[in-house]
Amino acid sequence: MQRRLRAPWLLAVVVACGCSPQAPTIDVMSSGGFAAAYDVLAPEFTQRSGTTLNTVYGSSMGGSPTSIPNRLDREEPADVVILASDALERLIANGQVIAGSRVDLANSLIGMAVRSGTPAPDISTVEAFERTLLDAESIAYSASASGTYLSTELFPRLGIADRIEDRSIRVVGERVGSVVARGEAQIGFQQVSELLPMEGITYVGTIPAEVQKVTTFSAGIATGARDEERARSLIEFLASTEAAPVVARTGMEPH
C-alpha cells in the first residue's frame, strides 16, 4: 500500500530533490501453486529494490473469474504473470505474454490431504491409490492444472472416471484444502505447495510416481507491461539461487 506524505516539510524536501513521493510499482498475477513461496519472497524483493508489488492471485486455467487468463482477457493490469508453464505458453501464443520472456521457477507435484483428525488412506502404490479413490465418499480436486490432469487424463486412464464421477467435486475459486477442512470432501488433491500451508487438514503425501504429473511453474512479462525492466528484475530474483531455499521449503523443486 502506498503511503501519503502528510508533513508539509517532507513534501517540500521531496519536491526540492526531484524525488517522487511514491515508490515504483509493478503489477503481478500469481497462481496458487507458487503463492506460498511468492508470499515469502515478495517482501524481500520490495525491501531490496524499493519496488512495491501489487499482487492478485488466480488459477492457471479454468472458468473462475479470478483465473489469470480471464483476468488478462479483461485487461486487468499486469507486468509479471506466474503460472503453470502450459498455460503460460498459451498466453504467449495469444500475444498476452512477451515471447522469450518465460523463465521456469519450480517444479511441483500433486499431493493428497484429508481433514485433520481423520485417518490417512494409503496411496503408496497405484493399486492402493485406486482403492482409496473408489472407497472415498467424496473427492475434491482443483479447477486448475492438477485437477484438470486428474479428471481428464488420470481417472479415465485408471478406468474409474465413471465410477467416481458422482462423488467428485471440482473446486473453483478457492483452495481444495479449504473444502476438505470444512468436511465437504473426504479427500482432496492439489499441488503440494498449495496444501502444505492450509490449516484444518493433514497432508498425506504425493500420489504415486507412476501416475504423477510434474507441473512447472513459470514467470513471464505481460504484453503491455508498464515497467519491463522491473518486471524482469523480479523474475530474475524469483529464479535466483537465493530464492531456491524458500521455494524448496514451500514444497516445490527449484529450477
Which descriptors apply to this entry?
alpha/beta; six-stranded mixed sheet; 2 domains; D-Maltodextrin-Binding Protein, domain 2; 38% helix; 255 residues; 11 strands
Describe the structure in your own words.
- The chain is of the alpha/beta class.
- The protein contains 11 helices and 11 strands.
- It folds into 2 domains: 20-107 and 215-254, Periplasmic binding protein-like II (D-Maltodextrin-Binding Protein, domain 2, 3-Layer(aba) Sandwich), CATH 3.40.190.10; 110-211, Periplasmic binding protein-like II (D-Maltodextrin-Binding Protein, domain 2).
- A 6-stranded mixed β-sheet has the order 2-1-3-10-4-11. Strands 7-6-8-5-9 form a 5-stranded mixed β-sheet.
- The longest helix is centred in the first third of the chain and has 18 residues, at 32-49.
**Mean model confidence by pLDDT:** 91
What's the name of the CATH homologous superfamily of the largest domain? Answer: Periplasmic binding protein-like II
* Helix and strand sequence: HEHEHEHEEHEHHEHEHEEHHE
The second-level CATH architecture of the largest domain is 3-Layer(aba) Sandwich
Low-confidence stretches: 1-20
SSE topology sketch:
Layout: H1 8-17, E1 25-30, H2 32-49, E2 52-57, H3 68-73, E3 80-84, H4 85-93, E4 103-108, E5 110-115, H5 126-135, E6 139-142, H6 145-158, H7 161-164, E7 168-171, H8 176-181, E8 187-191, H9 192-195, E9 201-206, E10 215-221, H10 228-238, H11 244-249, E11 253-254
Parallel strand pairs: 1-2, 1-3, 6-7, 6-8
Antiparallel strand pairs: 3-10, 4-10, 4-11, 5-8, 5-9
